Automatic annotation (TrEMBL):
GO terms for molecular function: 2-amino-4-hydroxy-6-hydroxymethyldihydropteridine diphosphokinase activity; ATP binding; kinase activity. Keywords: ATP-binding, Folate biosynthesis, Kinase, Nucleotide-binding, Transferase. This is 2-amino-4-hydroxy-6-hydroxymethyldihydropteridine pyrophosphokinase. Belongs to the HPPK family. Pathway: Cofactor biosynthesis; tetrahydrofolate biosynthesis; 2-amino-4-hydroxy-6-hydroxymethyl-7,8-dihydropteridine diphosphate from 7,8-dihydroneopterin triphosphate: step 4/4. InterPro entries: Hppk, Hppk_sf. Residues 7-135 form the 7,8-dihydro-6-hydroxymethylpterin-pyrophosphokinase domain. CDD domains: HPPK. Signal peptide: none annotated. The lineage of its organism: Bacteria, Pseudomonadati, Chlorobiota, Chlorobiia, Chlorobiales. NCBIfam families: folK (TIGR01498). GO terms for biological process: folic acid biosynthetic process; tetrahydrofolate biosynthetic process. Pfam families: HPPK. Catalyzes the transfer of pyrophosphate from adenosine triphosphate (ATP) to 6-hydroxymethyl-7,8-dihydropterin, an enzymatic step in folate biosynthesis pathway.
Length: 174
């Protein structure tokens, strides 16, 4: 399989949120046949769904991988478990870490377990703003660049860019 650029949304609103985001980036960098090529700034955002919880820290990582989408999803789920997220959880509940495949090249796939591009990404500023920090890819279903989707996004939230940055660990540094 050839190398593909994928974008992974990363979020946390429990405990040391920045450490969980960094842990996720570090573990993505350790994935076989995968490298992290860039990471957005960190943004603080209001929780989606249940407002009675801590604010989220959100970021997006760009990766180059030869893992297929199903393998990448499994790897992301393993990273979530490794960072303390249970396999079963209530939708929109607080979480130590959340990893979502936002885009995988220009692939469109819809299965019971996997939706690429992420079904709600064009409606969520906490995804679009950090993604636009590192790239402006075209949404393969809507056929519009991310910058254009952000301009027309109905989400009224205001992601707050934090001064904190995540580091991209190279495999030989880990």
């Amino acid at each position: 399989m050839e190398q593909v650029t994928a974008y992974i949304g990363i979020g946390s609103n429990v405990g040391d949120r920045l450490a969980y985001l960094q842990g996720a980036v570090d573990r993505l960098a350790k994935l076989e046949l995968t490298s992290v090529t860039s990471v957005s700034r960190v943004y603080m955002t209001e929780p989606f769904g249940d407002p009675d919880q801590e604010r989220y820290f959100n970021a997006v990582a760009a990766i180059e991988t030869v893992l297929d989408p199903t393998e990448l999803r499994s790897a992301c789920k393993a990273i979530e478990r490794d960072l303390g997220r249970p396999d079963e959880y209530q939708r929109w509940s607080p979480r130590t870490i959340d990893l979502d495949i936002l885009l995988y090249g220009d692939l469109c796939i819809e299965t019971e377990l996997l939706s690429i591009p992420h079904a709600e990404m064009h409606r969520r500023k906490f995804v679009l703003v950090p993604l636009l920090d590192i790239a402006n890819p075209e949404h393969p279903r809507l056929l519009r660049p991310i910058a254009e989707l952000l301009k027309s996004c109905g989400d009224s939230s205001v992601p707050v860019r934090l001064a904190k940055k995540l580091k991209i660990s190279r495999i030989d540094q880990i």
